[in-house]
Amino acid sequence: MPLIQWKESYSLKNTVLDTQHKRLFKILNKLYEDFMHGITDLAYESALDNIIAFTKYHFQTEEQIMHKIKHPHSYSHKQEHNRFSDKIHELKNSPGRDTHEKANELIKFLVNWVLHHIVVEDRKIAHH
Ligand SMILES: [Fe+2]
Ligand SMILES: [Fe+2]
Questions:
Q1: How many domains does the chain have?
Q2: Among 5, 68, 106, 116, which one has the highest count of C-beta atoms within 10 angstroms of its own C-beta?
Q3: Rounded to the nearest whole angstrom, what is the distance from the C-alpha of residue 37 to the centroid of ligand 2?
């Protein structure tokens, strides 16, 4: 069972953004699958690097769109992206602790963030 499943109601009616959001779901479900099977340090590190690289790319896409359509909440939206990146980097740099515990924290953070951000914040881009 995947951790989170894409629903049509998540769609922003924007193919580029929907495709990228679905990719985020995939990355998160893969991390969860690894977690359930006893995640290795290597798999955890590579999931984090994947998330960092992909969200950097995804946030740039959204920020360019918001800039183009002169979206009124682009500043606060960008701040949410920055807070996400700060948290992920903080997790990446947090020393010690066991990988299972760190992966658990990462997954919880991602599920809450991804669902809230896509459903509430990103929706404002599409419905502007
Ligand atoms: Fe997004
Ligand atoms: Fe966003």
A1: 1
A2: 106
A3: 31
Residue 76 lies in a domain: yes
Nearest ligand atom owner, CA of 19: 1
Which whole-number Å values give the CA distances from 107 to 19, 44, 69, 78, in the listed order? 21, 11, 33, 22
* Average pLDDT by stretches of 10, the chain with 128 residues: 92 95 96 96 94 97 94 94 95 86 95 92 84
Task: Please report whether residue 96 resides in a domain.
Answer: yes
> What distance in angstroms lies between residue 87's CA and the mean position of ligand 1's atoms?
16
Interval between CA 96 and ligand 1 midpoint (Å): 31
pLDDT at 94: 84
- Predicted TM-score of the model (pTM): 0.92
Question: Whose CA is closest to 20, among 45, 52, 53, 57?
Answer: 57
**Distance, CA 124 to ligand 1 centroid (Å)?**
11
Q: What pLDDT, on the 0 to 100 scale, is given for residue 70?
A: 92
Looking at all shown ligands, the one closest to residue 17's CA atom is 1
Separation between Cα atoms, residue 103 and residue 63, nearest integer Å: 28
